[in-house]
């Protein structure tokens, strides 16, 4: 399997690639993609790492697993391909961004521009079978992506981790909060957002304040 990621990530994760769990995981994924329709596209599985080099990572957003509908997932959490309708969680992300920053609602739901600025858009599970949410969970992806979070925590300072919802919040234990800023919120899904756990968190402006205080370039959300 061609692991399409920036060389800086290959250097960081080299040891993981040689572990038995990872080879078992890749065998599972290759079998699934041959036998079923799976998302994202094969070449986009590691898109988060391809678009955001390790040394440029300033912000981490953690999702659960990719969208499982056709032509949605592009390998970046919460992001969809250009021209696709925005899923409910992404609509609420954009609404909060609009309210927080006074920016117009985006036309495209493709978040690649965020990734290019140093936002690692990391799903805990990088693949999924079509129309079967969570179908590739507990196959090894979580071990791999937990290691990614730990590598960022150990190898950087003043990274902003945006942990949205109960699943993402559990990843806080992997982060050295003496070195990094963790911002917690409810999930942007309608179920959480409509109960008052998402809107008003102002995570976009707060994130940029942290970056600015650390003398890092802010994100153009």
Task: Walk me through the structure.
This protein has 221 residues and is α/β, with parallel strands linked by helices. It has 9 helices and 6 strands, in the order H-H-E-H-E-H-H-E-E-H-E-H-E-H-H. The strands form 2 sheets. A 4-stranded parallel beta sheet has the order 3-2-5-6. 38% of the residues are buried. The mean pLDDT is 97.
Order of helices and strands: HHEHEHHEEHEHEHH
Question: Which oligomeric form is depicted?
Answer: single chain
Beginning-to-end CA distance, first to last residue: 33 Å
Total strands: 6
The largest sheet is: 4 strands, parallel
Helix content percent band: 25-40%
Total number of helices: 9
| Cα gyration radius (Å) | 17 Å
Would you identify the regions where 5 or more consecutive residues have pLDDT less than 50?
none
Strand order of the largest sheet: 3-2-5-6
SS-based class: alpha/beta
Write down the overall mean pLDDT: 97
């Amino acid at each position: 399997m061609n692991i399409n990621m920036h060389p800086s990530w290959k250097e960081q994760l080299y040891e993981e690639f040689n572990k038995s769990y990872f080879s078992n995981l890749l065998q599972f994924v290759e079998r699934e993609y041959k036998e079923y329709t799976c998302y994202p596209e094969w070449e986009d599985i590691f898109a988060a790492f391809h678009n955001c080099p390790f040394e440029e990572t300033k912000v981490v957003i953690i999702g659960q697993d990719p969208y499982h509908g056709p032509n949605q997932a592009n390998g970046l959490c919460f992001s969809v391909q250009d021209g696709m309708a925005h899923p409910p969680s992404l609509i609420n992300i954009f609404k909060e961004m609009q309210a927080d920053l006074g920016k117009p609602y985006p036309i495209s739901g493709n978040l690649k521009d965020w990734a290019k600025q140093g936002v690692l858009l990391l799903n805990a599970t990088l693949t999924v079978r079509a129309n079967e949410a969570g179908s590739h969970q507990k196959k090894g992806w979580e071990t791999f992506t937990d290691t990614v979070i730990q590598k960022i925590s150990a190898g950087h300072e003043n990274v902003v981790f945006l942990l949205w919802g109960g699943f993402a919040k559990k990843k806080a234990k992997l982060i050295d909060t003496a070195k990094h800023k963790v911002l917690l919120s409810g999930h942007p899904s309608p179920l959480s957002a409509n109960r008052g756990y998402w809107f008003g968190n102002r995570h976009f402006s707060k994130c940029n304040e942290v970056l600015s205080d650390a003398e890092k370039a802010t994100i153009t959300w």
